[in-house]
Amino acid sequence: MMEVMQGVYKISGIWDQADLGANVYLLALGGGFTLVDAGYRNKYRQILKRIYRLGFTPTRIHHIIVTHHHPDHVGGLAALKGLTGAKVIAHKLDAPYIDGRMPQAGPSRPGWLKRRSGIFSDMLATPPCPVDIEVEDGNELPVAGGIKIIHTPGHTPGSICIYLKQERLVFTGDILARRLGVKLPSMVFTADVQQEISSIRKLAELDFETACFGHGFPLRKDAGKIVAKFANKLKVPRQALNPKP
Ligand SMILES: [Zn+2]
Ligand SMILES: [Zn+2]
Prior knowledge:
Elements: E1 2-5, E2 8-10, E3 25-29, E4 32-36, H1 44-53, E5 61-65, H2 71-74, H3 77-84, E6 87-91, H4 95-98, H5 110-114, H6 117-124, E7 133-135, E8 140-141, E9 147-151, E10 160-164, E11 169-173, E12 177-178, E13 182-183, H7 193-204, E14 210-213, H8 223-233, H9 238-241
Parallel strand pairs: 4-5, 5-6, 6-7, 11-14
Antiparallel strand pairs: 1-2, 2-3, 3-4, 8-9, 9-10, 10-11, 12-13
The chain binds zinc ion (ZN) (2 copies).
């Protein structure tokens, strides 16, 4: 666990970053508690335990914001909502995949999943969960002291970044990842790379100092500048241009 800044905690492990699936963040801001993303299906107990360990009571979590519908971000959502009574916030284009109206879209290269299905099928199973607040680009919500929703499609149609202007902080979900530097996330799970690049450029226009990613450690200094520099150089990766197997 890690305190990213005052009132913002990365719940996932320090060394084993992927221990919950995607990173899960707890925001103790604006007089309430908010989670960003919910990890894999079988990780919710660990998430609750870590929230207790930080000295917080999970039933005080009022909102869970979902950056996008992938199983490593929403697997534990139904359980966490059930146990905390939190309201779920997600973009209206990803909501149908979260609440079960649409089946979870598989990776863009099904062969990839087939080779791994033994280990992954259980983790990838996502119990559907109702979305209480469907959001769109530019929506401002009185959650965690005030957030703005930035619609950043590409990785999934309804991917969002969450912007806390006062804290100069963004949560990028999976439109960017951090692995020895800022990177595009896994192409295998990205629906539309061209659109994702436009979304990264849109994100780069915001004024922020700190970025929290779905995967990898937060950038706590000059994140806006680093993302802008990365956005400037971005080209569609060759692997994404190859015909899909
Ligand atoms: Zn992810
Ligand atoms: Zn994802």
